[in-house]
Amino acid sequence: MALRITDECINCDVCEPQCPNTAISMGPEHYIIDPDRCTECVGHFDEPQCQVFCPVECIEVDPDHTEDRETLEAKFRRLAVS
């Protein structure tokens, strides 16, 4: 599953540099995660780094973008080649 940032985001700038896939960027009101680039850090880390470092715990699983581990690994391999 891709992750998403909720409205509780305080725009602290901590998550963006932690993302190895550059999936996080500033949106109109707060940071957003591009589901096409989010692998939940599969292939890089054991757990999503944005969630680890978020001081307000506003990053959650995006139910609109459900993916199993195999799909996330395939996405990681595709992004690594790009």
The average pLDDT value, as a whole number, equals 96
| Secondary-structure class | alpha+beta
Q: Biggest sheet: strands, sense, closure?
A: 2 strands, antiparallel
- Element string (H = helix, E = strand): EEEHEH
Measured on Cα atoms, how large is the radius of gyration?
12 Å
Care to give the gist of this entry?
The protein is α+β, with helices and mostly antiparallel strands. It is built from two helices and four strands, in the order βββαβα.
Write the layout of secondary structure elements.
Blueprint (H helix, E strand, L loop, with lengths): L2 E3 L18 E3 L4 E3 L15 H5 L5 E3 L7 H13 L1
Antiparallel strand pairs: 1-4, 2-3
Protein name: YfhL family 4Fe-4S dicluster ferredoxin
Keywords: 4Fe-4S, Iron, Iron-sulfur, Metal-binding
Question: How would you describe this protein?
Answer:
Pfam families: Fer4. InterPro entries: 4Fe4S_Fe-S-bd (IPR017896), 4Fe4S_Fe_S_CS (IPR017900), PSI_iron-sulfur_center (IPR050157), YfhL-like (IPR047927). The protein has about 80 residues and is α+β, with helices and mostly antiparallel strands. Helix content is about 20%, strand content about 15%. Strand 2 (about 25) and strand 3 (about 30-35) form a beta hairpin. About 25% of the residues are buried.
